[in-house]
Amino acid sequence: MTEYQVPCVRRPLHIRVEVPGSKSITNRALLLAAMANGVSELEGVLFSDDSEYFLKALKKLGFPVEVEKEEKRVFVTGFGGMVPEKKTEIFVGSAGTAARFLTAFLAMSAGEYRLDASEQMKKRPMRELLTALEKLGVCIEYEEEKYHFPFRLRGLREEQGEAGIDLNIDQSSQFLSALLLTAPLRFPCLKIHLTGKRSARSYVEMSEQMMKQFGHSGVERIDENDYIVRKKSYNGRKYVIEPDVSAACYFYAMAAVTGGSAIVKRMSENSLQGDMKFLSVLEKTGCKVCWQGEEEKELLLTGPTAGALKGFTESFSDFSDQTLTAAALAPFADAPVTITGIAHIRGQESDRISVITKELHKMGIRCEEKEDRITIYPAKPRGARIHTYEDHRVAMAFAITGLRTEGVIIENPECCKKTFPEYFSVLTEICKG
């Protein structure tokens, strides 16, 4: 499918849908299982481009991996932090989690590896993580541009002493997660001091919680900018992966913009995922959100009548994957929508702030763009061809705008394979109903 014509609906959509497992949790669980002692059984696994690259990498590194795709289940045998294959080449595609986490993991191993990535991932930030690893004693040889893929890496062959490192996570909190997750393999104690301005830590907190779930309780947050992670082993276990809240938010947004309702199955009140905060933003636009049911509660969102949304100003620093989702809704608000705290999304799969401006401009919507924020002014959008920049979130978000706009065409919808291969098939079925 080279393009997708978004159905323009003239009625409220009442949605009940299931979404894939969380990409963020899937790839963290795969890493933790590989570092653990013994066999881990992972249920609810997301099978998408990102997770497939991670799975292929683990297999190539010699880990016994058994995949049951229909059951969304994966078994991984870990060897207590030891990597079986000491010399190989790994390709991470465009998967940011695989790129950052596997780099740090292999840096804490006794092998020599060549890591490469897609052209898109070659442009994305890696410098801060790679610089930190070099300061910790890891030898890295760059084949093209310094601090970018591809590179050759020689890991730390022996256990190190106590160490400290400065780290900037303004461009990606994955740098901190990568070090917290993997440092216990080589360091009895690693102190990490954050030097940047970004305070959003929802994905770091996810990493900390998952470390505990796999038996490691050695992360201590001293203050806003200082962490200590201590040596402690991980244990193999049975682990159920939550549904992807990032994906769920698109369907809740569809209910909001059409004045309908949505339930995404298996949502958790105790979710580890920061994108749950986007539901509070939807409440500010006029939606009603509630947990219903007795034993197995379901999260129901009801949109305002006729999708009459309210404008808002909000920092999305801690759930920035929903910036595009909010931008897709913004033309239908009764006042401007201003999204702040998002400078780092310029270095993701695309420069997402500029993309919002370009694509909404095609639809006749005025935007004011600054380095770390964007303001979108409401108006009736017109049909347009949406260029997706090989960015799955661009494709999924602007489909929401198309539900109330004739003539919206999404180019290259296949880019959604990164996290949600069936997204547009699911959307078509929803609109038929």
Condensed summary:
The protein is 30% helix and 24% strand. By secondary structure, the protein is an alpha/beta fold.
The appropriate CATH architecture of the largest domain is Alpha-beta prism
Q: Give the helix proportion (percent range).
A: 25-40%
The CATH superfamily of the largest domain bears the name: Enolpyruvate transferase domain
Structural domains: how many? 2
State the end-to-end distance: 22 Å
- Total number of beta strands: 23
What fold name stands as the CATH topology of the largest domain? UDP-n-acetylglucosamine1-carboxyvinyl-transferase, Chain
Which stretches are low in confidence, meaning pLDDT under 50 for 5 or more residues running? none
CATH domain class name of the largest domain = Alpha Beta
Structural classification: alpha/beta
Structure description:
With 433 residues, the chain is α/β, with parallel strands linked by helices. It folds into two domains: 208 residues, Alpha-beta prism (UDP-n-acetylglucosamine1-carboxyvinyl-transferase, Chain); 205 residues, Enolpyruvate transferase domain (UDP-n-acetylglucosamine1-carboxyvinyl-transferase, Chain). 30% of the residues lie in helices and 24% in strands. It has 13 helices and 23 strands. The strands form six sheets. It has a four-stranded mixed β-sheet with strand order 2-15-17-16. It has a four-stranded mixed β-sheet with strand order 4-5-3-14, covered by helices on one side. A hairpin with a 5-residue loop joins strand 16 and strand 17. Helix 1 runs parallel beside helix 2, helix 2 packs parallel to helix 3 and helix 6 packs parallel to helix 7. The longest helix is centred in the middle third of the chain and has 14 residues. It is globular and about 65 Å long. The two termini are 22 Å apart.
